[in-house]
Amino acid sequence: MTTERPNPIKSDKNGLLALKQVVKHFDISGGLLDRLRFEKGRLKHQRTTVKAVNNVSFTIAPGETFSVVGESGCGKSTLARTTLGIYPPNSGRILYRGERIDNKNAQQMLPFRRKMQMIFQDPYASLNPRMTVMQTLEEPVVFHNPSISRNQVKDRVAEVMSQVGVDPKWAARYPHEFSGGQRQRISIARALMVDPEFIVADEPVSALDVSIQAQILNLLMDAQDQRGLTYMFITHDLSVVEHISTRVAVMYLGTLCELSPARTLFESPRHPYTQALLSAIPKLGRKKTGHVKLKGEVPTPINLPSGCVFHGRCIYADPRCVEEVPQARTVENMVIVACHAVEEGRI
Amino acid sequence: MNRTWQRFKASYLLFSFKQDKTAMLSLAVLLTLLVTGLLAPVFSPYDPYDPANIDIMNSELPPAWTQDGEAAFLLGTDIQGRDLLSTMIYGLRLSILIGCGAVVLQGFLGVVVGLLAGYLGGKIDALLMRIADIQLSFPYLMVAIFISAIFQLAFGIGRYEDLAVPLLIVIIGLAEWPVYARTVRAAVLGEKNKEYVEAARVIGLNRWRIMFRHVLPNTMTSVLVISTIQVANAVMSEAALSFLGLGMPVTKPSLGSLIRSGFEYIFSGSWWITLFPGIFLVLLVLVINLLGDWLRDVLNPKLYKG
Amino acid sequence: MSHLLEVNDLEVKFGLRLGDLTAINGISFNLNKGERMGLVGESGAGKSVTGFAIINLISKPGFISGGRVMFNGRDLAALSEEAMREIRGNHISMIFQDPMMTLNPVLTIGTQMVETLQAHRSITRSEAEAIALEKLKKVQIPSPEKRLAQYPHEFSGGMRQRIVIAIALITDPEIIIADEPTTALDVTIQAEIMDLLQQLCESEDTGLILITHDLGVVSQVTEKIAVMYAGKIVESGPTERVVNDTKHPYTQGLIKALPGSLQPGARLNQIQGMMPTLTDIPPGCAFNPRCPICEAICRDQEPPFIPVDHLTRMVACHMVKPDPSMGTR
Fold first, then answer.
1. Are residue C157 and residue C244 in the same domain, yes or no?
2. pTM for this one?
3. Total of domains in chain C
4. CA C294, CA A97: separation in Å to the nearest integer?
5. CA of C190 vs chain A CAs: smallest distance (Å)
6. Same domain (yes/no): C65, C127
């Protein structure tokens, strides 16, 4: 077993998947009547939008585990779903092997659907309670290969079930007859059924107990070794991120703060937010060493702060941070940071 | 199949049914009524639709156990001399038929509309739900008067007798579909953001398949629960329409029209023509409602936990 | 010296249609004044039930079926509901994972704090408000005067949990039971809340029972730990010792399963299988089907929960031999 995961980033210039200036806003203003508002005696038409993802760009290389971390409400789950086309982006482009996929219709997307799959957070909501494991697992295969024979489907289901460590004898059971860990295995099996290249895993172990969490993480790493999968791993659990990632992207309020190889990020975080985040991880058996305290509270993604979205909580913030949005820049080999203070050498 | 049966035997549904004496008694009464009604020709002593069995001289005979009663007519006879028990059993059949038929129609319309509105959302949702609001704001009696008036004008009163059953099904069915549409829409809104629906989208399934194969089966619990109540309501609606003379004609009386025909003679002492069909109707509606209550308690996860 | 809280052989059962299920199977521990203790375990281990059992607040169909909970010389498990109400929220407070379990959404937090206080003390409203204000300052809520008049929905998750802590502290309790107080919060906020809780317990000399699944959090805040598995305590002792010199194979498995303890990318050490549900707890040691060092005796006999060294370490495992210097037992 390799302890150091290979770093495939340099091998492919274009990468497997690329996001270019992706923006996703949600209109939550409701019906026409909700949007009308009286202000200074005049009727105003006003929309309320949640700015979930703002101008995010990165490239995921084949074979790597690309993690996106951030706290709740930072837009990481939205980013995952936008990447897979569950939500269409408002602007920006999403490229899969160099081909644009964000403007394709459902029919044109089908070949890509076989390549890109997703694993979900809640093992109790991600399986249809009215379908047996067999029905759940065979659906994607039959849908993408309508000519496949019954027996081939059955063999395939049995094969994948045993790969994820669920006894194929249980295929006729319903999800409620399984424990959370087993359901998560079935959910992973569903994603593997179509032999994908790229899997987005949205908090796949957050709802699980520690001992089960280790089982699922091992399963995911084994599947990656055997099938050469590429992962986009969405999580808030930094110790998991440190363990499995090749590169890590840190998000705050829908914006990318920092993108670095995992080891570099955990050894020398650059962005002030990353520094605060990493210092807050409770480490086993180590008495607290005093974490970086952030002032204030996370602003809402409805009214984003001007300039750098982090400026209200940042100890290094200066007038420039309030006015100008920092651009993501490569500060050294493969380390990308969006921070004026880092750029100016103040940190 | 065998496995399904095993599952049913071990289920909470069956367990709580065995615990609940009211539910068991209700089901027994309901099944008896259903079997009697649906097999009316087998159980009823006479065929009330056959003019050969009707003798006007037998009209308004009281029940058999009273002084003037005749042993041949257990519950007495109605104003036309028909055996009241037989007429009631045939009337029960009509009431059940119309009630269930109306609910099937309501259910079909309501489920489709609710599913489309809930899943597709946006303008379609707004449009369909406003139509439902408008429908609900018409009293069904008004709709019924309206439709039957048009119908009788168009086809003549003679044919009304033959077409009364489908007509009533349509009237009651159209009046109440928004109840289903709203319930299903609410259930769909709860389901459609669950991760299994997103998983189906990631697979690439089209929206129709997701709607009917993934979302719809998960809304069926609430449909089942309101269906019991809706059957009881539909039976009541039919009885009310018939009582007002807008329902089944006297030649083919449902329970409601029997009550009405007897009502005119109640002050002349013929109480039985109204009372017995009334008891039948109350019994039918009561057991359906009791079963519905039980079902709602069992299937409601919130109550189940508490 | 007698302990502030002494839980003795506590047993909790749930009366279900299949018969009684044992959720807590004879656990014992104690807490001194101002001591901070962690109750660690995975979901279903019975740690939350233990918390509720201490304040005698087990909801039906559960009930305390044996053992004692001694607090200031009184057995809480045997107290009447009325007498218990005097203890609960007054001498022993509870903090839950979801702040909205404690906060009433339609009352201002000022009202809620004042009512809590007036339920236990006979004081005027303005006196109560002064105390409420002081407690809000203690939990570091900015501009507390203004905040008193606000409703729970006007606060963020972290702020709500601070208010819950303020409410828990308002009667100056001897013990706070915190059930996963930061699980729903982000790491940066979790760190702040934990800091605050620890600091307040130290300054007010309040005992803390921290119920959590997160060994990392526990190891930073508490002085001693009890690890629970399938309704029993399998290992307990001073936090630093339990974490660095783990005895029980389950605790060892838990710690090894944490991703932080290994070289990145390495396979994690997983514990096979999963925790048994209450209906199928295996005979002998409940952990035996998952245990890497299980032997025949583990399948037959329940291991006793016994001291293994002089440092109040207790372990329930046949395979763990007591420190030789302990002498024969």
1. no
2. 0.85
3. 2
4. 51
5. 8
6. no
- How far apart CA B170 and CA B174 sit, in angstroms, is 6
Q: Is C3 exposed, middle or buried (0-12, 13-18, 19+ CB in 10 A)?
A: middle
DSSP state of A29: -
Distances (CA, A) of C281 to A191, C14, C28, C118: 33, 15, 20, 46
Residues of chain B numbered 106-135 and touching chain A (CB < 8 Å)? 126
Give chain B positions within 8 Å (CB) of A121. 195
**Cα A286 → chain centroid:** 30
Q: Give the least confident one: A256-270, C233-247, C306-320.
A: C306-320
**pLDDT per position as a tens digit, A84-98:** 998 999 999 999 998
Q: Is A291 in Cβ contact with C261 (below 8 Å)?
A: no
- What is the share, in percent, of chain C residues with pLDDT greater than 90? 43
Same domain as C308, residue C219: yes
Torsion (CA) A219, A222, A224, A226 in degrees, nearest 10: -130
Q: Which parts of chain A sit beneath pLDDT 70?
A: 1-14, 31-33, 285-290
Inspect the interface and report whether the beta carbons of B205 and A139 lie closer than 8 Å: yes
Same domain, C140 and C269: no
Domains annotated on chain A, with CATH: 9-115+196-344 (3.40.50.300)
Summarised one tens digit per residue, pLDDT across range C160-202 is: 999 999 999 898 999 999 999 988 888 888 888 898 999 999 9
| Residue in A closest to C255 by C-alpha | A284
Q: State chain C's mean pLDDT as an integer.
A: 88
Q: How many angstroms separate the CA atoms of C128 and C241, rounded?
A: 43
The answer to whether residue C51 sits within a structural domain is yes
Q: Which residues in chain A touch residue C192, judged by CB atoms under 8 angstroms apart? A: 293
Report the chain A residue with the minimal C-alpha distance to residue B190. Answer: A125
Residue type, A128: N
For residue B304, pLDDT beyond 50: no
How far does the CA of residue A258 sit from the closest CA of chain C (Å)?
17
Q: pLDDT by residue (tens digit) across C49-82?
A: 999 999 988 888 889 999 999 998 889 988 888 8
Rounded alpha-carbon distances, angstroms, from residue C146 to C106, C110, C142: 17, 10, 9
Domain residues for the domain of C148 are 103-170
CA pair distance A339, A321, nearest whole angstrom = 8
Closest by alpha carbon to C66, among C32, C20, C30? Answer: C20
- The class of domain B32-44+63-305 in CATH terms is mainly alpha
In A, minimum Cα distance to C273 occurs at: A212
Cβ distance A130 to B201 less than 8 Å, yes or no, reads: no
What residues of A are in contact with residue B196 (Cβ under 8 Å)? Answer: 125-129
Alpha-carbon A96 to chain mean position: 16
Q: Dump the DSSP string for C254-322.
A: HHHHSGGGS-TTSPP-PPSS-PPPGGGPPSSSTTGGG-TT--HHHHHSPPP-EE-SSSS-EE--TTPPP
Nearest to B177 by CA among B140, B144, B214: B140
Q: Which chains touch B (3 or more CB pairs under 8 A)?
A: A
End position of a domain, from candidates C170, C185, C202:
C170
Separation in Å, CA of C320 to nearest CA in chain A: 21
C-alpha triplet C282, C287, C290: angle, nearest 5°:
100
> Does A214 contact C192 at a Cβ distance shorter than 8 Å?
no
Chain A neighbors of B194, CB-CB under 8 A: 125-126
Same domain, C262 and C142: no
Domain assignment present for C274: yes
On chain B, the residues whose CB falls within 8 A of the CB of A120 are: 195, 198-199
Residues C252 and C303 in one domain: yes
- Tokens (6 digits) for B87: 């007429």
pLDDT of residue B225: 84
Q: What would the two tokens of residue C148 be?
A: 């008193």
C107 and C220 share a domain? no
Site of tokens 């837009």: A75
